[in-house]
Design a protein that fits this description.
Elements (H helix, E strand, L loop, with lengths): L10 H31 L10 H25 L11 H35 L7 E2 L3 E2 L10 H29 L12
Antiparallel strand pairs: 1-2
């Protein structure tokens, strides 16, 4: 008796995908704006208050933790193969895009962490960063390279990859009629 190959992702992969999608889209679209707003208003949030910068840092940390969990889950639970109707060149582009997404979801939080000391040095009003309200957030050691440039470049690349990913999914769903959305929808 042969078993039919799986065509959808499992529940854990689906939850991780959509949770990370929400966080990543929020950071890519609002991340820099959050930092700029906080600099402009320069509010002191006092003990226990949460600033937009602190929120940005915490979401970045959450993305880093979730991508590690996602990688471990993906290794233990390989994803289903793409439908046979997907062309070989499209599969190659999908593989490259996914790989770049995984790299960026690790690199972006790390470059943000390394860029933070320079940001804090320029903006002394940014004090008291903490991890999810439980403990102080320690700044990265100072580095000589402008990691903020790498962070912004990575964000731009991630935004382009996100657009490519969404457009490809829409193409496969509505033009190619592969019903590819069902692979990543709760079942």
């Amino acid at each position: 008796m042969t078993t039919k190959p799986r065509t959808t992702y499992d529940r854990v992969a689906i939850i991780l995908h959509w949770l990370m999608a929400i966080l990543l889209i929020g950071m890519l679209l609002l991340g820099e704006d959050m930092m700029e707003i906080e600099k402009e208003i320069g509010e002191d949030h006092g003990e226990g208050g949460i600033s937009l910068i602190n929120l940005h840092v915490n979401i970045g940390i959450a993305i880093l933790v979730l991508i590690v969990l996602r990688i471990v889950w993906r290794i233990a639970n390989p994803p289903p193969a793409l439908p046979d109707t997907v062309k070989p060149w499209e599969k190659k582009i999908a593989t490259i895009t996914y790989g770049l997404f995984y790299v960026l979801m690790i690199v972006l939080p790390l470059t943000g962490w390394f860029a933070l000391p320079g940001f804090v040095a320029k903006h002394s009003e940014v004090v008291g960063l903490n991890l999810f309200g439980f403990m102080d957030f320690h700044l990265a050691p100072a580095v000589s390279i402008k990691t903020i440039i790498l962070h912004k470049l990575g964000s731009t690349i991630a935004l382009a990859l996100l657009a490519l990913h969404v457009l490809a999914a829409l193409k496969h769903q509505f033009i190619d009629d592969t019903k590819i959305f069902s692979r990543m929808m709760p079942h």
